[in-house]
Amino acid sequence: MSIVKASHIVWDWNGTLLHDNEVVLAAVNEVCAEFGRAPLRWEEWQQFYSRPVRACYERVLDRSLDDDDWARVDRLYHDKYDLLLHTSVLAPGVPDELIAWRETGRTQSLLSMWFHSQLVPTIAGHGLTDLFQRVDGLPGTLGGESKTDHLIRHLTAQNLTPADVVLIGDVVDDALAAQAVGAPCILVSTGAMTRQSLESTGAPVANTIPEAMQYVVPA
Length: 219
Prior knowledge:
With 219 residues, the protein is an alpha/beta fold. It has helices spanning 21-34, 42-48, 53-61, 67-84, 96-102, 116-125, 148-157, 172-181, 195-199, 209-213, and strands at 4-6, 8-11, 18-19, 89-90, 107-115, 135-138, 165-169, 185-188, 205-206, 216-218. A six-stranded parallel sheet has the order 6-5-2-7-8-9, with helices on both faces. α1 crosses α4 (67-84) and α7 crosses α8. The longest helix is centred in the middle third of the chain and has 18 residues, at 67-84. The chain is globular and about 50 Å long.
């Protein structure tokens, strides 16, 4: 087991702390239906998923997407996702593992590629706000970007040194963002990508949040 020493955890949200796979798949299949593509099973979506998400959907739909097309895809997806969001639940081990980390005297924050205006009230609705010293989501209204630049700003805003931080997420882009800034990463196989894809990053891969925390030692 590769142990990581850290004084701060940057958590991902969707697919990591929030179990929303069924909602994600329903939203993806809303896009598929609109564009005349047969619905996907979860395992198929995991094979397709990557960032940038626009290129991912081009593979799913087997066509190029201009800016208008992409705006339409993004709107269809998020309208369906928002409609079903209330059915999502917290991942096993949440919030207990986050509370236990806070009780060590260390800190944590949340960085999501979901829209900030929706992220903040959703976290509050689950009673998690006080666990994080900072919460950042996407500032705009169109998603699908890489996480790296957002992670740089997230760490800078908190005066955090990357070597003191571990990022815990569920997709390859989380590992790539962490690598880009010089921070370690632990991935959980609970979200939108296959375990094989996650393992290809070289980051430790856990099955659950409690298992992921076994890799982390407070620094």
